[in-house]
């Protein structure tokens, strides 16, 4: 079975590929990019130009296989792809018989070792409380924040839809934060995986998870008022180290000039449901606290923003600690926060399919514009 590793630049290739998705670049020199995977999960980009009518008119279906005949190998800056060649054709095809791994398959796996589809993957996104005035707030300083909740996602295989959840701390104070981290460890134990996806996790999520584990356990131990959480810091560090961490922001920043997660999702036409704060009966005026924030240019923005979360989180914790979890206000806050956090988790799995194409996306545009 021909695989991506067999593709040679400017040489004809017959290959069977599974369609994943398409994107339309801003360059008029390229009609679109269609993204595929070979039999071993290695990603292949099909560059479609405006005069490739048979490719433009083809109705691609996600998860369906296609047999390409006589295509042109298109290797550029290390990215594997194909494009039109005179006499080339494409037709729907049955899924290939994968058989046992051959030398070619092993070479393909080595080419992109972190993108093998036969392993389970998880995604993590933290939301925090701020503990200092905004005038001195440094979000990189773990002393200035506390963990409020963790968005988590699990995908046993890329062909399955991801399962998402939100883990909330059960109480205010350092003991509640330790309980959240223990809950996170139990969740990881119940959802074993090989790859961990984050967006800006290398600089934000993972360092804060480890530092807050240290700070919270030390604070609890010093107080002597709660059971000891000895070993929690090491458990968090060792558990996170057991995964292959893929920070999707690292590749995106190199390719697209430091986009936010929302900007990146818009670029690749990934629709994510927005969370509208006025749609929930929580009783709080979001515009009021936005006015007090240093950056309040989006005071009237109808959707929930990241800077709103610490405020909502404070109110959630207050109601929770007072036993008001059955009130309409608490349930509305809980629903708002769950939706906001989960919609930051699910797209990470979609971006994981596209991540190998970030560089190819830019390279093809540059090459087309220079021709």
TrEMBL record:
Gene3D superfamilies: Ribonuclease H-like superfamily/Ribonuclease H
InterPro entries found in the cross-reference section: RNaseH-like_sf, RNaseH_sf
Keywords, in A-Z order: Plasmid
GO molecular function, one term: nucleic acid binding
Annotated spans, Disordered: 88-109
The organism's place on the tree of life at top rank: Archaea
Protein name: Uncharacterized protein
Species this chain originates from: Halocatena salina
